[in-house]
Amino acid sequence: MVDMVKAHAGVSFELTDEQKMLQKMARDFTTAEIIPVAAEYDEQAKFPDDIFHKARELGIANMNIPAEYGGVGASVFEECLVGEELGYGCTGISTSISTNGLGSLPIILGGNEQQKRHWLGERLVDGGQLVSYCVTEAAAGSNVVGIQTKAEKQGDRYLINGSKIFITNASHADFFTVFAKTDPNAGHRGMTAFIIDRHAPGVKVGKKFDKLGQRASDTAEIVFENVEVPEENRIGQEGQGFYLAMKVFDYSRPGVAAAAVGLQRRALEESVRYAKEREAFGTPIYQHQAIGHKIADMAINYEASRLLVWQAAWQVEAGIANPKVPAYAKAFAADMATKAAVDAVQVFGGYGFMKEYPVEKLLRDVKIFQIYEGTSEIQRNIIVRELFR
Question: DSSP characters for 5-25?
Fold first, then answer.
């Protein structure tokens, strides 16, 4: 009976040789290129332009762009493998590297052939450019339907007016995927997606925000004042924007959760290392149950978070539309990463509060995971909605 079960097992947690190679490549890249400069880039709030281009040359940026447009054509699962490794090194730098994946998703999922060839192939892959994803507004964060940016049709063009806030990589992006209302009275059916070139007249990028954490990631406001956008830059049909945005989240949330998993692993490993060396009352502090159990919980939650991320990635690739699972992964990984960072500082005691030690930065970096790409509260709303549907 045991042999039969093994023979017919449909689930494996073993990575393929190719996936192990990809994971190792990303881990080696993180060790060589990210960890040595992470503190400096954080302190200076320096955008990792040089690191992004090294990652691009290696094939761990623009991962989700299909091979026919010059990209790697990586699966969501492969993106998650890389995302965990980059997140281990610095979630600010990893966010800067991975944002092209988010910004390009509306084009990958909803764009036509001409748009994919030009914006994905010519601009992102061949041109080495950056793209930002623009949904959030000052009065519309969690409530995506509440956006107020308008797109008014005028002949074969649209006139865009409005602003977007907290836009990642905005100061460095060469173009933007922007969601606007083509019919303000139609609720979620009145939203449409567009591609807007940074150099289009009327596009203004504001001063970047000075942030608590993930300081190597650029975040700024964008204002659109009478920006003319040709009809050929509309992604999909009018009114399809909300559905496209929701589909994007199903693809993007596993990767965001994977970065949180990477931060969890960093908190765990730093805590293990320190708790072996630090003594109190004549013994290494991990032998005191109060500390040892904190670290054990970190390990449990790390493994559970990673499995949820893997499940969410598998589901997307299998074409299963079930928003609960990405919500499970995003909420749990974000919450457990936050707990891990808090507990890591506690393990380090007073030293954990000092910039000299890495866990101080982990605590500042981690908080945004409970906020961006849908807050932990919104993930729970999604779960409740699906459970009681």
Answer: HHHT-----PPPHHHHHHHHH
Hey, what CATH topology would domain 12-126 get? Butyryl-Coa Dehydrogenase, subunit A; domain 1 (1.10.540)
Phi, psi of 150 (to 5 degrees): -115, 145
CA distances 380 to 23, 136, 264, 325, 331, Å, are 31, 19, 21, 11, 7
Identify the three-state secondary structure at position 238. coil
How many angstroms separate the CA atoms of 310 and 331, rounded? 14
pLDDT at position 294: 98
pLDDT of res. 351: 97
Catalytic residue among 317, 373, 377, 386: 373
For residues 18 and 58, what is the distance between their CA atoms, to the nearest angstrom?
A: 15
Q: Where are the domains of the chain?
A: 12-126, 131-239, 242-387
Angle 76-89/289-317 helices, nearest 10 degrees? 150
pTM above threshold 0.85: yes
**How many Cα atoms sit within 13 Å of 190 on the Cβ side?**
16
CATH superfamily of 131-239: Butyryl-CoA Dehydrogenase, subunit A, domain 2 (2.40.110.10)
Q: Provide DSSP, 149-166.
A: -EEEEETTEEEEEEEEEE
pLDDT means per 10 residues in the chain (389 residues)?
45 92 98 98 98 97 96 96 98 98 98 98 98 96 94 97 98 98 96 98 96 98 98 97 95 97 98 97 97 98 98 94 95 98 98 97 98 96 96
Q: Is residue 373 annotated as part of the catalytic site, yes or no?
A: yes
